[in-house]
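Task: encode each sequence below as structure tokens.

Item 1
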Amino acid sequence: MGATGLSSDTTEYRARLAEQTDPQIDSWAAEMMRDVAIRRGVVRVVEDFREAARLGELEFERVFASGGGSPATIGRDAQGRLMVPAVSLWALVPGIRSQVDDGRQRLIEYLVANFHELVYV
């Protein structure tokens, strides 16, 4: 897979991500969120991001709002799971960078956690 630019495993992928610029990491994270939301739903993105970024619900809401997402649009689905509008997922990227010192690393963790999604996108 190396010739195509893809990584063969998460260790190699993490190493390649570490070599990228901040704007590239941000772009890939936002694109991953969009693509996973289309394929698996917004709730999956929210849950995956919260886990990878180590965010509780209140921290997630703060990250979302500080990145430009409207706090009034944060809600829950019929099962009570936290969700936001799909068109606002991008706000998590600038939001995590503004709220924690290791925002870049948390975005990388999100990308690595979704490594197997790359096959579908």
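Item 2
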Amino acid sequence: MEGLRLRVKDVEFTANQIIVRDGKGAKDRMTMLPAALKPSLQRYLEEVRALHRADLKAGYGQVYLPYALDRKYTGGGRDWGWQYVFPATVLPVDPRSGVRRRHLDERVFRKGFREAVKTAGLTKPATCHTLRRSFATHLLQDGYDIRTVQELLGHRSVKTTMIYTHVLNRGGRGVMSPLDSL
């Protein structure tokens, strides 16, 4: 859901970071924007911007603003920065506020993920949460310290992050045997 609720303004291309708002533990945090994804993400956002312009031209294009921001920033829900990075393909009608663009539904994403797992021929079970676990595991395998990984994942306690160390498959406590370096 953190990814699906991502807003355009929270992707900072110049700083190479993504701001996750109201994420795990109802906290905001920053994570990295992979340099390898920047060009394709920028092209994708141009398509999303075209969709937003079409919505505005058709007389809608408003998205939900969190908390009371819609009262504070009247019309802010039409601003490009507040649009979802992953918008829904359909426009539901809210009986109170009319037509508003929402983010991609998590069920649609899960279904697509399951199809991708099947198409890839993976034999191990994988869910959307596997992406988060894989992210943490790869950071630890690359030598990043547990506190950095804790911060990137938004865990309150380092004990929660420690569960990812068991999959490093480097022996007890993630330590490599000196014999392996000979």
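Check on item 2: The chain is about 35% helix and 10% strand. The first strand starts at residue 11 and ends at 12.
End of task.
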